[in-house]
Design goal:
Oligomer: heterodimer
Distance between the termini of chain B: 36 Å
Helix content of chain B: under 10%
Number of helices of chain B: 0
Largest interface: A-B, 23 and 25 residues
Shape of chain B: globular
Number of strands of chain A: 11
Radius of gyration of chain B: 14 Å
Mean pLDDT of chain B: 92
Shape of chain A: globular
Strand content of chain A: over 45%
Mean pLDDT of chain A: 94
Radius of gyration of chain A: 13 Å
Low-confidence stretches of chain B: none
Order of helices and strands of chain B: EEEEEEEEEEEEE
Distance between the termini of chain A: 40 Å
Largest sheet of chain B: 7 strands, mixed
Low-confidence stretches of chain A: none
């Protein structure tokens, strides 16, 4: 069974700092990997999708990388803002879909 | 298009009762997924449909759970004889599938179930 781990579980940074969130998975046979954010009590909002053949995707201040062979992905957030405070989840798509437990990010004004 | 919608948003029921949730996906999406999420955890995959066909079911989906997507549009998730352990947020998502790959999953707001 696919295991997805996200480190750290929680992160607190001052506004303006650049940061990296990590996601690792045990089975490299995936079709794609997706990063989401979730605000408290809400559904998930898709941030970036990386197909298995791709190495990275960028959207605004966000950049996600994928190293399928080592089972790792990172989400880089540049110039963090208080509005970025949320839980960030990665999900891998193999035969089923597996989510990590998330990283809770707090950006302090 | 208004995105993925779910109904109801909240449901409180007594143990042993049956409940049914509805999900309306984005109209052109051919895939529909159900997940369950408990506090502090990531969503756990339950099942997904491509059009009206149910293609995968998690072992989490016991025989008390059944999902349908009769016309390849909206879907229902029914839980029979609810137990307190069923209390969770039930999330629905949809995407457009091209072959083996899938496009971005778009999530609904979820249905929060509380079993007393």
């Amino acid at each position: 069974k696919q295991e997805v781990t996200q480190i750290p579980a929680a992160l607190s940074v001052p506004e303006g700092e650049n940061l990296v969130l990590n996601c690792s998975f045990t089975d490299s046979a995936i079709y794609n990997l997706q990063w989401f954010r979730q605000d408290p009590g809400k559904g998930l909002t898709s941030l970036l999708l990386i197909q298995s053949s791709q190495r990275e995707q960028t959207s605004g201040r966000l950049n996600a990388s994928l190293d399928k062979s080592s089972g790792r992905s990172t989400l880089y957030i540049a110039a963090s803002q208080p509005g970025d405070s949320a839980t960030y989840l990665c999900a891998v798509n193999g035969n089923q879909f597996y989510f990590g437990t998330g990283t809770s990010l707090t950006v302090i004004p | 298009d208004t995105g993925v919608s779910q109904d109801p948003r909240h449901k409180i029921t007594k143990r042993g009762q049956n409940v049914t949730f509805r999900c309306d996906p984005i109209s052109e999406h051919n895939r529909l997924y159900w997940y369950r999420q408990t506090l502090g955890q990531g969503p756990e995959f339950l099942t997904y449909f491509q059009n009206e066909a149910q293609l995968e079911k998690s072992r989490l989906l016991s025989d008390r759970f059944s999902a349908e997507r009769p016309k390849g549009s909206f879907s229902t998730l029914e839980i029979q004889r609810t137990e307190q352990g069923d209390s969770a947020m039930y999330l629905c998502a949809s995407s457009f599938n091209r072959g083996l790959s899938t496009d971005t999953q778009y999530f609904g707001p979820g249905t929060r179930l509380t079993v007393l």
